[in-house]
Amino acid sequence: MLASEFENHLRRFLRILRKEKTILIKNQTAKLAAIVSQKETFVAVFEQYQAAITPTIQQLISEIQTQQAENLLLTQQAMSYQNMLMTTIKNNMQPASGTYSKYKQPAQPVQTMLVDREV
């Protein structure tokens, strides 16, 4: 494979990573599986390349690494948010109790907070 062909593969891979970033920002998880399968097709191409690394290839690889780091951070942020949301909902769920307390007063509802006040 020529260096110019490899550069074209790197550019296409970078476009896919940028598309993945947009999908992660917009929280469109249904489209994420298709992006992952597109990325998998490039593994064989990257493993087979044996020619010299040109400055253009080095620059593209650097951009790809930066974009992958951004996408990883976006993924971790989304997972952290989901975990925090589920933990908050779980902690605020109370077991069902009787309608009235022992003082013949209706039970007061517990307010649900989605913001953790502890810092």
Topology:
Elements: H1 3-25, H2 29-40, H3 42-48, H4 55-92
Helix pairs in contact: 1-2, 1-4
Short note summarizing the structure:
With 119 residues, the protein is mostly helical. It has 4 helices and no strands. 4% of the residues are buried.
Could you characterize what this model shows?
The chain is mostly helical and 119 residues long. The chain has helices spanning 3-25, 29-40, 42-48, 55-92. The radius of gyration is 24 Å and the shape is rod-shaped.
Uncertain stretches of 5 or more adjacent residues: none
Hey, roughly how much beta strand do the residues contain?
A: under 5%
Helix content: 55-70%
Q: Tally the beta strands.
A: 0
On the 0 to 100 scale, the average pLDDT is: 83
Distance between the termini: 54 Å
Largest pleated sheet: none
* Radius of gyration, in angstroms, nearest whole number: 24 Å
Shape descriptor reads rod-shaped
Q: What is the count of helical runs?
A: 4
- Listing every helix as H and every strand as E from the N terminus to the C terminus, the arrangement reads HHHH
Q: Structural class, from helix and strand content? A: mainly alpha
